[in-house]
Amino acid sequence: MDVIVAPITTQNGQEQSKVVSTLRKPSKGGWNSAIFIIFVEVTLRFAYYGLAGNLITYLTNDLHQSTSTAIKNVNTWVGVSAIFPIFGAILADSLLGRFKTIILASAIYFLGMILLTLSVSVIPTHYREAVFFIALYILAFGEGGHKPCVQTFAADQFDEEKPEEKAAKSSFFNWWYLGIVAGASSAVLLVIYIQDNVGWTAGFGMLTGALGVALFIFLAGIKRYRKQAPVKSPFTMVAQVFVAAMRKRRVIETQQGLGICYDAGGTDVEGQPGNSRTLAATNQYRFLDKAMIIDNLDASSKPRNPWRLCSLNQVEEVKLVLRLLPIWLSCFMFTAVLAQTHTLFIKQGSTMIRSIGPNFQVPPASFQSLVGLTILFTIPIYDRILVPAARKLTGHRSGVTMLQRIGIGLFLSVIEMVVAALVEAKRVSIAREHGLIDTPKATVPMSVWWILPQYMISGISDVFTVVGLQELFYDQMPESMRSLGAAAHVSVIGVGSFVNTAIITVVQAITARSSGILLGDNLNRAHVDYFYWVLAVLSALNFCVYLWIASGFVYKKVEGEEPQQGKGLDLDM
């Protein structure tokens, strides 16, 4: 309740003060609303990783698929789940808005998980596989609406016009990812254990119940959210700039131009004053600048034709998208490496000694929690220790630039594959020494903790690259296209999964002609270490390409604001 001292006039004309109490409206935005959204995302990741984390085990053990077929099916489903968000982002930005898209996607996800639970319990055996895959792709469809909107909607709760909320947003991405990892790690430790030791029905039923609770909690915070209204399709704006530039390709500004169109449009938040910001002109992709030149035809046209004349802001927003495209392409190998944590790493660990004490064996898929636990420890250290220390050295508010952060993770992914290859070579040599090379189901006398380093390096690289990509694709995308930016970040994982499948297919085709097929069902003769070396070499080449691309990257510049990032990989302002 707010207490206000208000002046009043008495009957004799004298002015007095009166205490008036008013009820304070619930504040919108900030951490008060973001916490509801974070909880929903934590629960959704709990459900997703409770399924994805052990999917290869269900496909090979219960549906009796071969290892290579199961890996390809997992990669395809993960890939489709990460590609669909592009369409969900378009739907959110141009038609429904993020809030309504989240509700719709969450409902679809909930129904898909119900069907998945039924497919492993009451559905007849001869229909089980078909219903299971139908349910999987209903879940992928739900992911398409959920993934691009939830993080963006949560970040929208922090007003960039308020210095304290703008500072909180930078830290938000670290803690957001920490919450995701907490949900994923809980699923990997708890749900996968239940799936392996109690049953698939109990495991999937737990995920279904969690989704129902998450949907209820999201709706409970409905009055606290800042909601952004949908705008026109982002692809329309991009197309208009390209068409206008093409139509004026022969126009010379100094001879035929009457000036530049500077009017800027912005996207307002419901209930908030306009918060559009004017972007500063940049020298990259100069051919697009033709779109904002006003010629005689534009000057005589009322109203202006958006397919012939675009504003400075529109042109610069398209340039932002074009600058992000090479970064997006250069991260595919990182996610191809990331795919090993829920496929080959699991199969690798399943052949090793996993016992803790005399009566307990750790499920092989549960070792994915090592990635999550590493992240849980690393993010607070990074946010509270490394960033302040780096800030003193560089003067940058985040310690390092977003591109530097991504680059560190890409380099670590190369190290991860080198370590994984060496450990796998050691495992095979021990299997050979004990005469187990042709006994694929036998346990190799080697502790599973040998694979701990590769999981830990994967977690540390995630802290740098995945969080860095999340922040980059939110911060550097046009404000009206931020859902699409989140979808682009998520689609890196999807395309990387397809890249991993393509590499497996090519490698198998090549090796089948000579030394026998790679990645066969007998892991002891599958030459998995060779495959890891292939990924290490490709990742190293990709890292070099990334350095070249990032060195020429130009960060977003806003008129009247001091730039927060340097150019490319530099910190110089």
TrEMBL record:
It is found in: Membrane. GO terms for cellular component: membrane. Keywords: Membrane, Phosphoprotein, Transmembrane, Transmembrane helix. One of its GO terms (molecular function) is dipeptide transmembrane transporter activity. Pfam families: PTR2. InterPro entries: MFS_trans_sf (IPR036259), NRT1/PTR (IPR044739), POT_fam (IPR000109), PTR2_symporter_CS (IPR018456). CDD domains: MFS_NPF5. The keyword Membrane applies. It is a multi-pass membrane protein. The keyword Transmembrane applies. The chain crosses the membrane at residues 34-56, 76-96, 103-124, 175-194, 200-222, 324-345, 365-382, 403-423, 455-474, 486-510, 530-549. Its main location: membrane. It comes from the Eukaryota. Signal peptide: none annotated. Belongs to the major facilitator superfamily. Proton-dependent oligopeptide transporter (POT/PTR) (TC 2.A.17) family. This is Major facilitator superfamily (MFS) profile domain-containing protein.
